[in-house]
Amino acid sequence: MKDLQDRVVVITGGGSGIGRGSALAFARAGAKVVVADRDDDRSESVAKEARAVGPGALSVRCDVVSDADLTALRDRALEHFGAIDVIMNNVGVIAAGSPLDIPLSDWQRVIDVNLLSVVRSNAVFLPLLLAQGEGHVVNTASTNALYAYSSDRLPYTATKAAIVAISEALALFLRPRGVGITCLCPGPVITNISEQITFHGEVGPIQAPTLELLDAGDVGEMVVQAVQDDRFLLLTHPKEVHDILVRRADDPEGFLAGQIAAMTDSPVVSP
Ligand SMILES: NC(=O)c1ccc[n+]([C@@H]2O[C@H](COP(=O)([O-])OP(=O)(O)OC[C@H]3O[C@@H](n4cnc5c(N)ncnc54)[C@H](O)[C@@H]3O)[C@@H](O)[C@H]2O)c1
């Protein structure tokens, strides 16, 4: 979607971090943005910022675990702006702890929020984009889905890997029907994500990839560019992640041994 002028972009989890950075980048590119978040104050404050730099913005309270909230989000966006061109499924939460300490109940919560939210969003938004024969989906996964650098958040890893897999499979379905899809795999980004981590058992420092910590505004600009270029895989650290994946493909055993050795001395706090 080369020209974003007056296009309508809906972003879940838009009230903070990467969602906020993307909302403001889309607004600067000329798009109208619908900032959806379960935190009203955050979404309204980002909508206000977006109104100052773009053609219009709306904030909607939406919890992505609710079918009714997502349906109401779609209806509110259509009522207010008359169309929806881009849906960014961006909410993600973390349960942290050793693989033996995270209870099934928190696995279920993380799967519901991170993965089933995308399934719900697909049911609500895809029929609209497919009927238009154009539009774009952005699914936020994580570098955590692409290779193992931590063992302290298995539900998060599982849901993000699933998002990569279903996004790629969906591309086979959507692209021939005129709808684009981007799977965003961020490395570490400065956001408020650590506020909503639930901890189980003895948790040491959160294990992070050895990648540069990025600004969420810069990631937002990357998202806009990927939508304009109709690019599927969006890596925020393309060179580093490419090299890591090649190294793993060449020597999976050696790669794993190296990751285990690195985990023992990489106490950086970031997802
Ligand atoms: N920050 C990183 O380093 C990083 C790295 C890789 C991937 N990601 C992914 O980026 C996405 C955005 O995370 P972020 O780092 O910007 O976090 P953030 O916490 O700054 O923003 C997330 C927003 O989602 C909202 N939210 C949480 N649960 C919700 C729900 N059930 N319904 C609606 N809104 C909800 C929060 O209120 C918050 O405003 C997530 O999917 C995360 O997994 C982040």
Description:
The protein is of the alpha/beta class. It folds into two domains: 8-236, NAD(P)-binding Rossmann-like Domain (Rossmann fold, 3-Layer(aba) Sandwich); 239-271, no CATH class. 48% of the residues lie in helices and 17% in strands. The strands form three sheets. It has a seven-stranded parallel beta sheet, with helices on both faces. Helix 1 (17-28) links the parallel strand 1 and strand 2 (32-37). Helix 7 crosses helix 8. The longest helix is centred in the middle third of the chain and has 29 residues, at 104-132. The radius of gyration is 18 Å and the shape is globular. 44% of the residues are buried. Bound molecules: nicotinamide-adenine-dinucleotide. Residues 12-13, 15-19, 37-39, 42, 62-65, 90-93, 113, 140, 142, 186, 188-189, 191-193, 196, 270-271 line the site of nicotinamide-adenine-dinucleotide.
Index terms:
Rossmann fold, 271 residues, seven-stranded parallel sheet, globular, binds nicotinamide-adenine-dinucleotide, alpha/beta, disordered C terminus, 2 domains, two-stranded parallel sheet
